[in-house]
Amino acid sequence: MSRDITQAFKEANKYVDLIEKNDADITREEREMVAKETVENFRNHVNKGFLEYRKSVTEKNSFAVTEWTGQGSILKDILGREYIDLLGGFGLYSYGIRHPKIVAAVKAQLDRSPQYSQEMLDPLRAKLAQVIGMITPGDIQYGFFANSGTEAVEGAMKLAKFYTGKKGFIAMLKGFHGKTLGSLSLMGKDVYRQPLLPLLEGVQHAPFGDAGAVERILKSSAAVGNEIAGIVAEPIQGEAGAIVPPDDFWPRLRELCDKYGVLLIADEVQTGFGRTGKIFGVDHWDVTPDIMCFGKALGGGVVPMSGFFSTPKIWEVMEPNPFMHTTTTGGNPIACAAALAAITVLQTEDLPDQAAKKGEYVKGRLGKLKEKYPGILEKVTGKGLLIGMEFVSDEIGYQLSAGLFARGVITSGTLTNAKCIRFEPALNIPMETLDKALGVMEEVFKEIKGE
Fold this sequence. Notes:
Elements: H1 5-20, H2 28-46, H3 48-53, E1 67-71, E2 74-77, E3 82-85, H4 88-91, H5 100-112, H6 123-135, E4 142-146, H7 149-164, E5 168-172, H8 181-186, H9 190-193, E6 203-206, H10 211-224, E7 228-233, H11 249-260, E8 263-267, E9 291-294, E10 306-310, H12 312-315, H13 333-348, H14 351-372, E11 377-383, E12 386-391, H15 394-406, E13 409-410, E14 412-414, E15 417-423, H16 431-449
Helix pairs in contact: 5-13, 6-13, 10-11, 14-16, 15-16
C-alpha cells in the first residue's frame, strides 16, 4: 500500500473517538463498520491465515463476530451477540473477564503512574516479588518480571545456564513453552520448530511422564560431556491436551536433578495461580523446583504480566551485575497492581478450591456424555479447570467446537494436539453458566450422533 500519513492520522482518530464513546452511544452503523473493517484489516495488515482459522469469520451471517467487550464469563461482540467463554483466553482469564477488583486497582495506579522512571525504586514490583516469594514452595524468593510467558521461560533458561555454567536442557515431547527462539527450542512438536532449525543447541527431549527416559538422557549426556543445565517441564501439559503425568514423575525429576546437579524448572505459565485446583501445579506432588515460570493469569487478565523466580543461592549470580537481564516495561506499576489485586482475589474467592470442585463436576458430566453418546469422546484429561476433551478424530473435534460456537459457546483446540478441545473457563464461572454450557455441549453431541 502507498504511504498516506494524513489518512493514517484520520483512521487513528476515528477509533480513538470510538473507544472513548459510551457503548450506548455507538450507532449500529458504527458497529457494522467495525465488524467489516476488522476483517479487511486482518486480511490486509495482520495475517490472512487467521481468517481461515478463526471460527468467528466463517459463521454464516453477514457480519463477522468481532470481539468488543465482556464481563465474568460472558463475551459480547460488536453487534451485541453474547457468548459463554469456556476458553478463558487460553488460561488468561482465571479471574474472569474484567474482574472489578483487578480493574479498579489498575485504574487507580494508572491515575498515579502507569510506568516507572527506570532509575528510582518502584514499590509495587518489590511488594509483588515479596508476595510471590511467600506463596511459592520451598526457598523460592527472588524474581524478575516480564510481559509474556515466553519471556519468563527465556529468563529461566538464561539463569540456569548462568548459574550452572552448562548449556544443555531436557524438555518434554509435546511440551509448549513459547515461540521465541530459546523457548521454541524446548517445544516438543516439529511443525513449529522444523522450519526454523537450527535452534538453541544442546536441547534433548523425553516423553512427558517418563522419568526413566529422563534419567537415561542425563546418564548418556554426562558420559559424553554434554552437560545439562536444567530440566524444563509443565506440571501438567496444557497445549498437549491437559496431560497429567504419573504421580511419581515430578518427585523423580526432583531426585534426578539433585543427583546429577541439574536445575528443575517448572513452567507454571498455564498451570499457576489456581488453575489446576492448587495454587501451583507442582503443589499436587509437593515438589519444590529450582526455578518457576509464571504468566497468563499473573496479570489478572487485565495487564500482560509474567515472571521467573528462584532461590537466594541461584539468584546470587544475578547480583554482581543486575543488568545481565533487563526489560523496559516488565513489572511496570499497572501490571504489578493488577497482579497484586489478582492474588487477593485468588485468596478471597478461594479460586483453587473452586477450580478443584468445578473440575471434578465437569469431568463427571463429560464422562456421562462419553457413555451416553459413544464414538465421539475418547477420553477426558486434566486437573481442576485445565481440562482436555480428546475426541476420536480431528473432524469430530472441529464439529464440536463449531457446533458450540454456533450456539454461543466459545472454546478452542490445543496447539500441539489437534483432536483435543480445551475446557478452560474462569475459575469463578457461576455454576448456572457452567451448567448452561454443558447443556449446549450435549446438544452438539446429539447433533454429531444425528439424533
